[in-house]
Amino acid sequence: MDYFTWNVSPILLELGPLQLRWYGILFVGSFFLGLTISKWIFQREGRDPEVLDTLLIYALVGTVIGARLMHCLAYEPHYYLSHPLEILMVWKGGLASHGGLLGVIIAFWLFCKRYNESFLWLISRMTIPGLLIAAAVRFGNLFNSEILGKETDLPWAIIFERVDMLPRHPVQLYEAFSYLAILGLFVILYKKLSTELTTRLFPGLLLFMMFSVRFLLEYTKTKQAAYSWEIPLSTGQMLSLPFILVGMGWILWALKRNQVKRV
Question: Is position 5 within any domain?
Fold first, then answer.
């Protein structure tokens, strides 16, 4: 069987020591596209969109710091604890989505504390641009030929020629398109649900759906961590479980509060 071969360079443009990489374009570009979506949300609900430029900085810094620390301490702790200065070398690669989410939540909390915004309202609305950013990151992983899937003979398998000649699950695309599908659902719900229910429900719904996808797709991924658990779960699955459980509890709380309000 002939499989699709992927051999796109991760570098779009190179000027001497400077490199413009697809991953960086998708990562930063998705934040600015998310900023446009956020402005629409703020204007739709009568909020001041002028604060979003500052919020963007908080979100970028929080995401990068959280994602980098989680990757270093959860996936390769032995190496980075022995080479702590390399934790700062973000350009070498290594970001973990679980840490990115925690980092941006902390950044949003600090922002709300500084500018007297509603934390719950903000994180519920930022789920929509957040899903877009998560999808863009996975497309960036595709350009980097990283986060590889396991070998498979399925007709849509991809050969990542920069790595080897094995047909693999295009797990980056699985995850990216899953996030875009969830994004579509959130936009529909955002337009249909009440403001109060949206505020209470969306954070938990995001945690449950996003990390359930991540948990299931780990079965198609190659091993990422440099060590193994003594149970049949990967590091990514172990990190996803708390988010899934918190999400389930959050959804039940939101629905229960909505029922109480109707009575």
Answer: no
Does pTM surpass 0.70? yes
Give me Rg for the CA atoms of the chain: 19
CA–CA dist 131, 133 (Å, integer): 5
Mean pLDDT over all residues of the chain? 91
Distance in angstroms (rounded) separating the CA atoms of residues 103 and 97: 10
**Under 8 Å CB-to-CB from 73, ≥6 apart: which residues?**
80, 81
pLDDT exceeds cutoff 80 at 229: no
DSSP code at position 10: S
221: three-class secondary structure by DSSP: strand
Range of the domain at 138: 19-262
Q: Total structural domains in the chain?
A: 1
d(CA 153, CA 177): 21
| Interatomic CA distance for residues 25 and 75, integer angstroms | 25
Overall average pLDDT of the 199-210 stretch: 97
* H-run or E-run covering 21: strand 18-21
